[in-house]
Amino acid sequence: MSARTLPEDLIVHNAFGETLKQWRNQRRLSQLDLGLAANVSARHISFLETGRSQPSRMMVRLLCDSLDLPFTARNSFLTAAGFAPAYRRRHLEDDDMAHIRAAVDWALDRHNPFPAMALDKHWSIVRANASAGFLLMGAGLSEGDSLLEAMLDKDKLGGVLENWLEVMAPVAVRLRTESAHLGGDPVLDEAVQRLTRQLGSRLGSHDGPLPAIVPARYRAGETVLSLLSTIAQFGSAEDIVLAELKIEMMFPADETTRNLLLGMSGQSH
Q1: How many angstroms separate the CA atoms of 82 and 88, rounded?
Q2: Which of 2, 174, 180, 222 has the fewest beta carbons closer than 10 A?
Q3: What is the reported pTM?
Q4: Is 140 left (phi over 0), alpha (psi -120 to 50) or beta?
Q5: pLDDT digits (tens, 9 = 90+) for 31-43
């Protein structure tokens, strides 16, 4: 992890140092904080940022871990330091991703009759099980469409999602958090701005103790399904697309919804 220290008169424009400083500030860390996390001195972090020291590949990866960087940023770090990128962006339909597709499909299919779908980092619908397809159909959505754009359209999703205003407030917080992890994402940031304008004073205006969770109430004809959501991701992903993939699984928030979904699938209560 040692790095070569350059004399002052040999220091030139340092893309790595500038990138390191930007991400350190993004993560709200001082040079001392980052040094402690990476087990190096604050002085060494300063030398890396100013270009007085050049990092080894191992040091770059250690700093990436300490800053909890997404894979695209890690590739940029490596490239800026003069090293080859470490992470590929495969397509889910590639031959060597067959076992991943099988795992995703298994999770979605086994979750029926409760809705589940796989989403990319901008909330495009990659895959959906039959129950989720039924819900999405009511909003005119299917695989390949943007769930994010639909959520931002109150007139479109509001006809299906009864408590749109109530659900979108925590969604805005979630989008802001996802963007921050990525170091700022234009698509997610724009979505947050649009949601904030639509929600207005309702954002953060809840009086009294907050509920444990806000179920989403979907209308399907004369039926209302009350659902709560969980998010699952691959914990050991080493591919950009796979690391960005989320599986949203919905569960009944009440017995009525549970019985309706089980009944629609022909399963016993």
Answers
A1: 17
A2: 222
A3: 0.82
A4: left
A5: 999 999 999 999 9
